[in-house]
Amino acid sequence: MTLFTAEQSWPFSAALAVMVGLCVLEGAGLLIAHSPSQLLDNLLPDTPDGFDGPLGWLHLGKVPMLVLIILFLTGFALTGYLIQGMALSLGGHLLPAWVAGIPAALAGLAVTSGLGGLIAHVIPRDESSAVSEQSLIGRAGVVVRGVARAGLAAEAKVRDIHGLAHYVMVEPDLPEQVFEEGANVLLVKKSGASFRCIPNPHPELL
Fold it and tell me: CA-based Rg of the chain, rounded to a whole angstrom?
C-alpha cells in the first residue's frame, strides 16, 4: 500500500480526484458555452465589491468560485500528502486522516487566500469594454445600490453575453415604478447616461 492509496490518505486522494473532475467539467463547459464557474458565481450575492465580511479574505466575488474551490482542494491535497510523507519518513507510519487533515485544511485556506489574491489582481475586472452598452439592452440585472425611481437612477449589476458583470445606472421605464435594492430588473432601452428598466418577468433566469 503506497502513500497515495493508503486509507489514512483518502481525504487527500478524494480532494485531488474532485479537483481533476472540476477541471475537466469546466473545460467541457467552455466547449458548449455553459461554464460551471459562471453558474456558481451567479449564486453569490450581487455586491459591487464581492464579500466584505469574514470571508472577504478568501476573495469570494472577486475570483470565480470554481477557481477558489480548485485552489483549496489542491492546497489541501498536496499539503496532506506532504504531511503524511513526512510522518512516514520520520515515524515509520502514517497519521490518522483527521490528524493530517486539520493542518492540511488550514494550508488549503492559506493557499486559497494567497493565490486568490494574486489571481484577483491579474484577471480582468468585471467591467468590460469588449461589448457595447447597447448590447446590454434586453439583459436582466439586480439593483445593488440605491433606489431607482422616476428622475433618480440607482446602480444595477448586469451580466453580458460573456457572463461578465457591468455596473450601470438604471431608472424605471414607467414613472410610477420604484425599484429598491435587490429588485430584479430587465433593461429595455438606453436613455442618456442611464438605462430604463422594467420588472424582470423571469427572475429565475438571472
Answer: 22
Domain 133-200 class?
mainly beta
How much is the pTM? Answer: 0.57
Domain chopping of the chain, boundaries = 7-122, 133-200
Q: Which three cell numbers stand for residue 177?
A: 415604478
Tell me the pLDDT tens digit for each residue of 14-59. 999 999 988 887 777 656 545 556 656 555 555 444 455 556 677 7
Look up cell 420588472; give the residue.
199
Residue 108 in grid coordinates:
488549503
User: Scanning the structure block, which residue is given the C-alpha cell 435587490?
Assistant: 182
125 burial type by CB count under 10 A (0-12 exposed, 13-18 middle, 19+ buried): exposed
